[in-house]
Amino acid sequence: MMTFNVEITDDALQDLSDLYEYIAVNLHSPMNAGRQLKRLMAEIILLDTFPKRYGIIDTEPLKKKGLHFMPMNNYTVFYIRKRTTCDCDQYAV
Asked: Rounded to an integer, what distance in angstroms lies between the CA atom of residue 58 and that of residue 50?
């Protein structure tokens, strides 16, 4: 089975950090913040074995770039599947 290298961009890491801080500090729930990040990271890492599992955005110019979207809870992970890597960005919806 072919595996891919999942690369998480600096912007995505900052988004994840901001998400953790918002849930932990603003919502006073550090335990839930940790759980949410753990769920997001687990799904992102699974892209290494099946990066086509989520659809491509169906509007141009994002479709032409091959931008995939992975809905998860109240968030969406956006990523581009390259030949051997998946660069992942995560944004709150």
From this structure: 20
Contact indicator for 17, 8 with CB cutoff of 8 Å: no
For 39, the token pair is 């769920």
Please choose, from the candidates 45, 82, 83, 88, the residue with its C-alpha nearest in 3D space to the C-alpha of residue 69: 88
The pTM of this model reads: 0.78
pLDDT tens by residue, 5-42: 888 999 999 999 999 999 999 999 999 999 999 999 99
DSSP the chain: ----EEEE-HHHHHHHHHHHHIIIIISS-HHHHHHHHHHHHHHHHGGGT-GGGSPBP-STTHHHHTEEEEEETTEEEEEEE-SSEEEEEEEE-
Give the residues across from 56 on adjacent strands.
68
